[in-house]
Amino acid sequence: MISRKLWNSIWPPLVAVILFLLIWQGATTLFHIEKWILPSPVDIGRQSVAEAASLWEHTLATLRLMLLGFAIGTLFGLVVAFVLHLVPFLKSSLYPLLILSQNVPTIALAPLLMIWFGFGILPKIIVITLVCFFPVAVAAMDGLTRTDRVMLNYMKMIGASRGEIFRKLEVPFALPAMLSGVKISATYSVMGAVIAEWIGADKGIGYYMMLQKSSFRTDNIFVAIVIIVAISLMMFACIALLEKWLIRYKPEK
Fold first, then answer.
1. Which residues form the ABC transmembrane type-1 domain (predicted)?
2. Number of domains into which the chain is organized
């Protein structure tokens, strides 16, 4: 059974989505909009059933690529955050460059990565890693700097080493911020995988979208978009559950 608290948080957006779909369906029917311009939700649902076998294969390919890139990007982001936090000189030197690196669009880097590393899986993993690591690194560094000063001074007074302070105080205190960054990274990883597949792939949701664009199959493109949104929501929900399991204590507001 769904608890009342959970139901109260679910029903407002659920009603909004249902109303949006009803308005969409009514508009396409009332104004006789061509399917190749804007298919109705019913058309998209029918097409998803018709293309189920092919879509499942492409979805699995995207999931494998996305999960691998997400894991590497998250780990890389945490390592960068930890190193920059523990070595202040590196943080003051490299943090501005870290910010500047995000001003280069990923879609612009992808063709260069294909030229440098070929059309295998490596450039695709690099694209997803570049997309994922930044939110994790920034959130982790921000969380590490917000450690409770009273507890920090207390641990220093009792003679705790720098490593003990980092492991037993700073990392646990920064865990909520880290997981917030991981949630953002999880949703970005799907976008990164699709962008990587746009540049060069022989399967995956991004590759499927490019094929349908060439055929002007707008309905199939919408099906692919629905799948991308569903994967993003699934990833976000998984990290949210992990956060709920890891962080048992939350102070009263």
1. 59-240
2. 1
